Amino acid sequence: xxxxxxxxxxxxxxxxxxxxxxxxxxxxxxxxxxxxxxxxxxxxxxxxxxxxxxxxxxxxxxxxxxxxxxxxxxxxxxxxxxxxxxxxxxxxxxxxxxxxxxxxxxxxxxxxxxxxxxxxxxxxxxxxxxxxxxxxxxxxxxxxxxxxxxxxxxxxxxxxxxxxxxxxxxxxxxxxxxxxxxxxxxxxxxxxxxxxxxxxxxxxxxxxxxxxxxxxxxxxxxxxxxxxxxxxxxxxxxxxxxxxxxxxxxxxxxxxxxxxxxxxxxxxxxxxxxxxxxxxxxxxxxxxxxxxxxxxxxxxxxxxxxxxxxxxxxxxxxxxxxxxxxxxxx
Amino acid sequence: xxxxxxxxxxxxxxxxxxxxxxxxxxxxxxxxxxxxxxxxxxxxxxxxxxxxxxxxxxxxxxxxxxxxxxxxxxxxxxxxxxxxxxxxxxxxxxxxxxxxxxxxxxxxxxxxxxxxxxxxxxxxxxxxxxxxxxxxxxxxxxxxxxxxxxxxxxxxxxxxxxxxxxxxxxxxxxxxxxxxxxxxxxxxxxxxxxxxxxxxxxxxxxxxxxxxxxxxxxxxxxxxxxxxxxxxxxxxxxxxxxxxxxxxxxxxxxxxxxxxxxxxxxxxxxxxxxxxxxxxxxxxxxxxxxxxxxxxxxxxxxxxxxxxxxxxxxxxxxxxxxxxxxxxxx
Lengths: 330, 330
Fold this sequence. Notes:
Chain A is α/β, with parallel strands linked by helices. Chain A contains nine helices and 13 strands.
């Protein structure tokens, strides 16, 4: 009920205006609220672009990495390695890709032996596939992924340094195991390491791949891997091999540069002899290396060209382990 | 003179229009021509910006470098070194900065012992200044400059590799001699090499400067050096030292990153003992290193802050000289 002033003509108009304005304001607020809900979630997990300024992120996401370790038939090695890797500086989380189909994960044991420095997630797989580790895991919160084979031990010093190198080269695969392809006069490519002739660019050798079984890479490449031609998945599944070669093709194609940056490890060890399982890894299969040459040629067909590029840059840590490791006669 | 059709009213109008149009077109062409003359000359000698796409240039300018060698009182070493450096792959030209005031250059002898693989220009100086080598020489046609002291011999293998590294890091000083500064609790900085304690970033050592007496750098920094505060020139002239420290300050300030990238040399030699002149270089003066610490602190004052940043990246050539120099137990 209005009082005396409401009855004044001007005031009547004023009240109506006031009501109208109030309604308009309320409607606008509701519309604004609705629009806010429609805003896309800001995702910053795109592939790195050297032109971008660093965005403000939680320290954690930028300054730490997630370890992805795929495991098959070597749980004793896995557990030994988890004890090592759980304590690496800048580690955010561990994702164990559990390829032991139908077998219980050691999660219970893991929990009973806590507390642990970082969380570990066991991702139970339904099919034992080599490429299971290349999924775009929703558990990933960091930009950087450290991928490690379940029989490989790399020292904390090497990892801390390589991580700092990756942060300077986030669009590359920064790791410890370099390999190369070579051309032959027939046009058929072959895969190998330094025992093969250098690709002929002057002095020394070149590498064109860095294996992902001991390397840092940007999580965006896992996202990217989901959009590859079906033939790539078929190749990896057919060979149970070459997921790392495929990843190098992907990165090289995307960046137009050498896919990897090689960091020379001071202390890297293969523990496969230490396993009780008797299982000694896919690379012992007779056809393993021939398969990898086969994969290189198949991938060239699939990608309609050879995107891999050569590099001869070898990075070591200045003054470590020997504080005078850079000394010379000058 | 027009013919019969000119007399027709419509045609009269047509002719006038035609004349008018012709005059307009001619005037426009003249104006366009004049504007073309006013267009700025496209200069591509600005400092490198990692965001830029490579411009189409003559192969020569992009794929070769200019050696700048300043010399004082060591002509015998100079000539020995010229015989070495004149044959380095990818060398475009040599600029000798002749600090022997009033003395004839060896140009006549040089010419009489031709032909030579590359042209050499002797730049006669009027005052013996350390910073003479940091002029923006109009003789420079390449983006890359290799600066070398007149007593330093670096192998062709090292230079070819370091040049390829510079091409990947053109905004850095890419060279063979790393140094660092350290902070002390008093806030006073000190200059030194690896014998000084590491700056405290975990394992190993760090460097914050790469000396320009054996390094590749972008010619744009010579241009940039001409625009520094007068106090910088005064400091270099007063000490006859520290031009290289000043250059590292300049680069670090400009890029916001570590100024240098250290490439570990395989074969670098100091020939100063071989000179007949008896002159053994500025760095033998008693006060040389103290001067350099002094310079660091003065430059911090001049630039109102410490722009130098640390790096621990050491680059070597993959597979050279030992083709298995990256081998490990994997």
